[in-house]
Design goal:
By secondary structure, this protein is of the alpha+beta class. It has a four-stranded mixed beta sheet with strand order 1-2-3-4, with helices on both faces.
C-alpha cells in the first residue's frame, strides 16, 4: 500500500514523535516519584541511555513502545505498518537488535535490567508498577 501523505507532510508528522518524556514514561516516573523513589532519567553514562536509572541499586529500566520496538504482544499498540513495509520492517528489526545489545552490555557491567512495554503500562498499570517495585526490592545490589 502506498503512502497517501506527501513526503514533506510525513516528515512533519514524524518530527512530532517523541523519543523521551513520552506519555507512558511519564506515567511510570510520576508513580515511582509519588512512591518516594528518586532516579535519573535518560542516563547517558550507560549503554542505551535507559529511561529510568537507579544508580545505587544498579537497576536500569527501559520503557518501550510496542510498535517502535517490535513487541509481539498482539495488542492494538503493536500493529504492523501497512505502508512502506520495506522500510519499517528492517528499521524495527534493527531497533530490536540494538535493544538487545544494550541489555547485554548493561548486564555484563553488573546492572539489573527491566524492560516495560507500552501494553503492560496501558492495560495493567498498577500490576506493572507493583512488579517493578518488587523486582527492585529483590534484585537491587
Amino acid at each position: 500500500m502506498a503512502d497517501t501523505i506527501s513526503s514533506d507532510r510525513r516528515s512533519e508528522i514524524m518530527s512530532h514523535i517523541k523519543s523521551k518524556d513520552t506519555s507512558i514514561e511519564m506515567m511510570v516516573r510520576r508513580r515511582l516519584f509519588a512512591m518516594g523513589y528518586r532516579y535519573r532519567v535518560n542516563y547517558k553514562a550507560l549503554p542505551g541511555k535507559p529511561d529510568i536509572v537507579f544508580t545505587r541499586k544498579k537497576v536500569a529500566i527501559f520503557i518501550h513502545g510496542c510498535y517502535w520496538h517490535g513487541h509481539n504482544c498482539g495488542s492494538r499498540y503493536a500493529h504492523v505498518s501497512k505502508s512502506n513495509k520495506a522500510y519499517w520492517m528492517p528499521k524495527i528489526q534493527r531497533t530490536q537488535q540494538r535493544d538487545q545489545e544494550h541489555i547485554t552490555k548493561l548486564k555484563s557491567l553488573g546492572w539489573n535490567v527491566v524492560v516495560i512495554w507500552e501494553c503492560q503500562i496501558r492495560d495493567h498499570f498498577d500490576q506493572t508498577i507493583d512488579e517493578l517495585v518488587d523486582f527492585m526490592r529483590k534484585n537491587a545490589s
